[in-house]
């Protein structure tokens, strides 16, 4: 029996070793199957993620196709229009185009047409313009002085545009407008209605409605909400107005060349002004507002006003704005056969690295 136990013991050990080996093979086989299953699952997840990414890209492309220039849908334009510079004619174009081009137009109506806002209204206005998403893209217009949005800590600033006019021509137009109105609202009673005194007679008699101080308007509208802006004849205000015109305004046109101003705006901002040039040329509303019974001033009247230091400074600003606009126009349009046309893109990219 002892010898039998000695002989049987190695056999049991061998069987145990074989059993253990078989078990290990089975376990390794299961592990391999699990690894293959995990790899298959990872590939499936990866394909699903790629499909999701491609779907999002396709949706984004579709959205861009459905909404051209979608990146411009947050743009806000502020037209702080100077009175009697053809501002109503231009604004009517925006009203005619807003439905077709899908943007909003909002009139900024201030109490007694005061162009200077209180500090609290400045804060409210900046907050409205920057956060009122339902009104974006938006075109705001009104007789308000320039307001520097950067003072209020906002990230996105609006695009300012404006139009200026020869100072004396603007004042003459305003003088007769207060007395006779215009063809926009012919039945409306004006503040000076019934006063038949001509502009020449007013200047000759030293009247307050035609005084040189009344010329002081375009500079403060561009200068802004500083107290010095409204001191008639201030050279500081002149320099500040020039600085703002060059650095804070996208484009400033002149009344005498309004069509060119509209043409350049259409080329630069088609999201808003696509079709504006043709509408201005052929539309009925764009030429509505014309002051009635306006009598041109005599040379003596003009000479007398030009002797004023206020006129000299206001006219310097107007000449500065005119020169800047003509510079922009010279690089934006060309004339051919008596017609102006907008230049196409004249820059391109090359040597793009890494390839």
What descriptors fit this protein?
single chain, 355 residues, alpha/beta, Rossmann fold, 5-stranded parallel β-sheet, transmembrane helix, P-loop_NTPase
Short structural summary:
This protein has 12 helices and 7 strands. The longest helix has 65 residues. The protein is α/β, with parallel strands linked by helices.
Query: Pairing-aware structural class of the strands and helices?
Result: alpha/beta
CATH C-level class? Alpha Beta
Specify the number of helices.
Answer: 12
The strand order across the widest sheet is 2-3-1-4-5
Fourth CATH level, the homologous superfamily: P-loop containing nucleotide triphosphate hydrolases
Number of domains: 1
State the helicity in percent bands: 40-55%
CATH architecture descriptor name: 3-Layer(aba) Sandwich
SSE sequence, one letter per element: HEHEHEEHHHHEHHHHHEE
Radius of gyration: 36 Å
Description:
- The chain is of the alpha/beta class and 355 residues long.
- The chain has one domain: Rossmann fold (3-Layer(aba) Sandwich), CATH 3.40.50.
- It has twelve helices and seven strands.
- The strands form two sheets. The protein has a five-stranded parallel beta sheet with strand order 2-3-1-4-5. The protein has a two-stranded antiparallel ribbon with strand order 6-7.
- A hairpin with a 2-residue loop joins β6 and β7.
- α8 runs antiparallel to α10.
- The longest helix is centred in the N-terminal third of the chain and has 65 residues, at 2-66.
- The radius of gyration is 36 Å and the shape is elongated.
- The N and C termini lie far apart (86 Å).
- The model is unreliable at 62-70 (pLDDT under 50).
- Belongs to the sulfotransferase 3 family.
- This is Heparan sulfate 2-O-sulfotransferase 1.
């Amino acid at each position: 029996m002892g010898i039998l136990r000695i002989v049987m013991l190695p056999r049991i050990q061998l069987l145990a070793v074989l059993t253990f080996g078989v078990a290990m093979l089975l376990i390794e086989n299961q592990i391999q199957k699990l690894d293959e299953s995990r790899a298959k699952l990872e590939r499936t997840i990866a394909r699903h993620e790629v499909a999701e990414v491609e779907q999002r890209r396709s949706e984004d492309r579709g959205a861009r196709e459905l909404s051209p220039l979608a990146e411009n849908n947050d743009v806000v334009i502020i037209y702080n229009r100077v009175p009697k510079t053809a501002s109503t004619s231009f604004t009517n174009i925006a009203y005619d185009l807003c439905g077709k081009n899908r943007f909003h137009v909002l009139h900024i109506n201030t109490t007694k047409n005061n162009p200077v806002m209180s500090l609290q209204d400045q804060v409210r206005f900046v907050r409205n313009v920057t956060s009122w998403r339902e009104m974006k893209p938006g075109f705001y217009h009104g007789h308000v002085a320039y307001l520097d949005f950067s003072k209020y800590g906002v990230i996105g600033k609006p695009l300012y545009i404006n139009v200026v006019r020869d100072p004396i021509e603007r004042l003459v137009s305003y003088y007769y407008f207060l007395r006779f109105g215009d063809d926009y609202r012919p039945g409306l009673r004006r503040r000076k209605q019934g006063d038949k005194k001509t502009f020449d007679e007013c200047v000759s008699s030293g009247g307050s409605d035609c005084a040189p101080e009344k010329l002081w308007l375009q500079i403060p509208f561009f200068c802004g909400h500083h107290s010095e802006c409204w001191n008639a004849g201030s050279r500081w205000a002149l320099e500040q107005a020039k600085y703002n015109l060059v650095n804070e305004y996208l484009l400033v046109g002149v009344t005498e060349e309004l069509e060119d101003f509209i043409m350049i705006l259409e080329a630069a901002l088609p999201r808003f002004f696509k079709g504006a040039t043709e509408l201005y040329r052929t539309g009925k509303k764009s030429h509505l507002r014309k002051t009635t019974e306006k009598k041109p001033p005599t040379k003596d009247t003009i000479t007398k006003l030009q002797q004023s230091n206020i006129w000299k400074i206001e006219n310097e600003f107007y000449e500065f704005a005119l020169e800047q606009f003509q510079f922009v126009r010279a690089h934006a349009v060309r004339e051919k056969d008596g017609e102006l046309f907008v230049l196409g893109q004249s820059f391109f990219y090359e040597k793009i690295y890494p390839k």
